[in-house]
Amino acid sequence: MPERKKLLLRLDPDVYDAVAKWAADDLRSVNAQIEFALRLALKSAGRSPRRSPPAQDDD
What we know:
Blueprint: H1 13-25, H2 30-44
């Protein structure tokens, strides 16, 4: 498995709180929730990466 990229992300505190609540509701870490949201956005924009595990829906 390729090494995961690290980055510093600055977020508005209200955005962070909303993502943290969403992550808790989905039983994910904030980091995993951000990646999940980015993958959904990429898929919606028709820009999914080639080597990408599918975004997991917890329906």
